[in-house]
Structure formats: structure tokens, C-alpha cells
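Worked problem 6 (solution included).
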Amino acid sequence: MIIGSRTPAQLEDLLEGVGVELSDGVLDRIDEIVPRGTDLNRDDSYCTPPAPATSPCAAAAEAGRGRHGMISSGS
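Solution. The predicted structure is:
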């Protein structure tokens, strides 16, 4: 939801989009046009969000290790 409506009419307009879900294809296309983390307006840079964290399990899987950091046998 976009925060900052100033009138009831603006709020009602924004609330109409609550149930809208974008497909993976649309989200991928948005990421192609504006990559994640792109600063569109430096004047709005009053806050730096934390970088996305990779879970230890996902990091281990990417490194070819099992859930507990052990080398996977591939089975």
C-alpha cells in the first residue's frame, strides 16, 4: 500500500488496489526496468533499508553443502 493519502478520496482510490496481485512475469519485467535497490529519487534517501539476507540453509545449498554445512553427496 502506498502511504501518504491526504484526502478520503485518495485513500479510497488506493484501497481499490489492495487485492491486486502482480504475476511473476510482471514483477520480473519491473525488476528489468528498475533493478531492486535502485534509488529513483535521491531526495527521498532519508533511510537505507537493510540488504536482503540469505538464510544459512540457502547459502549452504548454493555452496553445495547440506543443511548442516556438510558436503552433499547429491542424493
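Discussion: DSSP finds three helices and no strands in the chain.
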